[in-house]
Every structure is written in C-alpha cells, then in structure tokens.
Amino acid sequence: SSESAHHLEYLPVYLSQDYEPVFIEPFMDGKENAFVKYINNTGELLSNTLIKEQEVSECFVHYTLHKSKGELMVCDIQGWYPILCDPEVATKEEQDENKNMLFAAGNISDKAIKEFKNNHKCSTICKELRLST
To answer: What pTM did the predictor assign?
Structure first.
C-alpha cells in the first residue's frame, strides 16, 4: 500500500580532481526543508519530532546491517528528508588485512554498530521487511 511505501535518496557523489569524494548540496533556505540529522556516525539515534522520517532512517540503517550480515552499516543519516547527504559507513573491522582504514576517518567501526543495535527499536517498517533483530 502507499502508506507503507517509503523512499530515501542520496545526493550524487562526484570525484574531485584529486579523486576525493565530494557532495554538492543544493541551497536550502531552511524554511520549507530543514536540515535534520537522524543518526550520528557513532550509531547514536537522535530523537526527532519527525517520527515517520526517524523510523524510515533507522530502518534504512537496520537494512544495511541486515543485508551485510552484520559486517557494516550506513550511518550518519542526515539531510532534507527524503534527500540525504554525506553518509558514513561503519564496519565491523576498522582496518583491512593491510591495516588500511576502511571507508573514511568517520568509520567508528564496531562501536557504532553496537550503539545502534543497543538503542534501535524495530518499527513496523523493519517488521514488514523481516529484518533480523
């Protein structure tokens, strides 16, 4: 049903001349579309009065954790709902076998995953998707 149809979209990521990822965000006056942060890169859930948006954001993070079998999750969920920007990825392991940092400096690794798992309460959306708890 349309009541259970939810979507999120991320702004495109471009590469700079130095091959660094760059988000180009549109100008938003903050009157109609306020910038909101739903979940930190630490996995901390930020309480918002925007209940539906918070539930969809948490479900998205839960979905990424579920699909990766607990190996990683997309976090730092923020933007002008439903348009999001500047995500972070938290991985179970902070470094690869060669001691290279996985993803970016904002990867708080397993600490973020544990924080999210300890505080996330599955919504009806999570249950509809049959996400593991």
So the answer is: 0.84
